[in-house]
Design a protein that fits this description.
The complex is a heterodimer of chains A (266) and B (267).
Chain A (H helix, E strand, L loop, with lengths): L6 H19 L17 E4 L11 E4 H5 L4 H7 L13 H5 L22 H4 L28 H6 L22 E4 L9 E4 H5 L4 H4 L16 H5 L38
Antiparallel strand pairs in A: 1-2, 3-4
Chain B lengths: L1 H16 L18 E4 L11 E4 H7 L2 H8 L12 H5 L13 E2 L2 E2 L10 H11 L12 H5 L13 H6 L25 E3 L8 E4 L1 H8 L21 H5 L5 H4 L9 H4 E3 L3
Antiparallel strand pairs in B: 1-2, 3-4, 5-6, 6-7
Classes of the chains: A alpha+beta (266), B alpha+beta (267).
Chain lengths: 266, 267
């Protein structure tokens, strides 16, 4: 006769397990990095060739850009890879209108023309633009990451990011089915994946077939450990999209169990 | 025990079935690299670097079926098993690259030779056998495509539009290689249901394919072609390079362009 755990017990078990595992996990796959402050979440320094070329690394802020453009604009149309320093961005390419240069062309936005503009990207400062973050507190609140519920902000019309530059999604990306992902560990509640929330931002190919195959259960190696190592969901969730500390957002039955101390309301 | 074995075998098989997917994003080929094939990797006794074949130049000059039907190249890199002797005897590359065939305003250079001088090695052998480094080709990609209509992805060239505009005129018949055919009657477009509920339906245009590939490019080897619905395949297999993926993985517009096939919204 299998033991039927009540909802509270069901929620408590994975957390207890995590706590039990945490000393071992400190050097293993379940060690979460210390979260950056909200205004640094999703910021990165691009230094593929900058330092070697005698300029400072480029600071890039996702939260500045995602207010104006959806993910697909840069990660699909403009062909930015999902991992920093793997896209062959060069000054020549930018000047030819590729990558950053698609918008930063000196006409729509500052570009490569004026010497005083170099420092606006090539500054090596991860906190660059932090002073522009405060006005975003008007957006719906979230617990982690930028502490902004970007989906709600989009749904409520508080931000209106452009979904294309020149390349029209040639058909509507209307696929919105929510799928249930059964977990491997019996005590961990199942996860759900809503296509609809993702297709508002992304193109199909941003995830398929590289990250996820298109047939359920055929994505090999999809487990929490790999996700924390920034594969699969972890390609975005953990660095740009809401972080993995927010268990209950994917595993609804886990509720709001915090990995980190619950942040104070802002 | 038996169940455990089945599970173990299933687990071993899954990676084979799901080869297209890896958990991290792959680098997309740059426009000049799209459609590039390195030929020769499989030959242990090869004395030269791999031959680099870029589809973009040849497809601007010839239809797919000249090479893949009339000459007989397989659809997969290194799938043909080309040997130097074959080329010298006038097969495969040697069918055109024989130093005799006239194309446009010149004679096509001869490919492999039995003996060659050091000078010839530079100007002739390494022209193809560049091993993926910058080859000694006559054409520069960006200069070549500058005047052609733009398109998203792949080579960044709208090949079909380029042909419709008359900017490229791919030859469909090469004397001595091609055989005379009756003109194709182009069948109707096909509406293919996607298996996943809510997914846009696929419109397959025969017209867009038949001009380049003829009938033989696809039928009967890739698609039996006898009756709609008879060939069973899935998107998983296409991503692995089968069926539509034979061309649309590496040469024809790539599969990142989902909505180009999945065009028809479900009611």
């Amino acid at each position: 006769m299998p033991h039927q755990a009540g909802p509270v017990t069901r929620r408590a078990i994975p957390v207890a397990l995590l706590l039990l595992l945490s000393p071992a996990g400190a050097s293993g796959s379940f060690s979460f990095p210390e979260p950056p402050p909200p205004e640094e979440y999703g910021n990165l320094l691009i230094n593929r060739a900058s330092a070697a070329g005698g300029v400072k690394p480029v600071s890039f802020s996702h939260w500045i850009h995602r207010q104006k453009h959806t993910c697909r604009v840069c990660h699909f149309e403009l062909q930015f890879n999902f991992e920093a320093n793997t896209t062959e961005i060069t000054e020549d390419a930018n000047r030819a209108g590729m990558f950053c240069g698609a918008c930063h062309d000196g006409k729509q936005l500052f570009g490569h023309q004026k010497p005083e503009d170099c420092d606006r990207c090539h500054n090596g400062d991860l906190r660059r633009g932090a002073e522009r973050f405060a006005p975003l507190w008007r957006l719906p609140e979230e617990r982690y990451g930028n502490r902004i519920d970007w989906n709600a902000a989009l749904a409520e019309g508080k931000i209106a990011p452009a979904n294309k530059l020149t390349i029209d999604p040639s058909g509507e990306i209307g696929f919105s089915s929510t799928i249930l992902l059964e977990t491997v560990w019996p005590m961990v509640p199942n996860a759900t994946f809503p296509h609809g929330k993702h297709t508002k931002w992304l193109d199909c190919n941003d995830c398929h077939p590289n990250l996820f195959n298109i047939k359920k259960k055929f994505t090999v190696g999809l487990r929490m450990g790999s996700i924390i190592e920034r594969q699969y969901c972890g390609v975005c969730h953990g660095t740009v999209a809401f972080p993995l500390t927010d268990c209950g957002r994917c595993h609804p039955d886990m509720g709001k169990i915090p990995i980190y101390p619950e942040p104070a309301s802002r | 025990m038996r169940k455990a074995t089945v599970v173990a075998v299933a687990l071993l098989l899954i990676p084979l079935l799901a080869g297209a997917q890896s958990g991290t994003k792959k680098r997309r080929p740059l426009p000049p690299e799209f459609g590039r094939v390195l030929i020769g990797a499989s030959y242990a006794d090869q004395k030269f670097p791999d031959a680099q074949f870029d589809h973009w130049l040849h497809r601007a000059k010839f239809t797919c079926r000249v090479c893949h039907v009339d000459v007989g190249f397989a659809m997969k890199g290194n799938g043909t098993g080309i040997r130097q002797e074959d080329i010298m005897a006038g097969f495969y590359c040697g069918a055109c690259h024989n130093g005799k065939l006239r194309h446009e305003d010149r004679t096509v250079f001869a490919a492999c030779a039995g003996t060659f001088t050091d000078e010839e090695k530079e100007s002739r052998c390494l022209r193809c056998h560049s091993g993926g480094t910058k080859g000694r080709q006559k054409y520069d990609f960006f200069a070549f495509v500058a005047d052609l209509p733009k398109e998203r992805f792949g080579n960044g060239v709208g090949w079909q539009e380029a042909e419709a505009m008359g900017k490229i005129k791919p030859r469909d018949f090469v004397e001595g290689i091609s055989f005379k055919r009756r003109e194709i009657e182009i069948p109707k477009d096909i509406d293919i249901d996607a298996k996943v509920p809510g997914m846009n339906e696929i419109i397959f245009s025969h017209k867009k394919h038949a001009i380049w590939s003829g009938c033989e490019g696809c039928h009967p080897e890739i698609f039996s072609g006898i009756q709609k619905g008879l060939t069973k395949y899935s998107m998983m297999e296409i991503f692995e390079g089968k069926f539509c993926g034979q061309c649309h993985l590496n040469v024809a517009f790539p599969m990142i362009d989902c909505q180009r096939c999945h065009t028809k919204p479900v009611q």
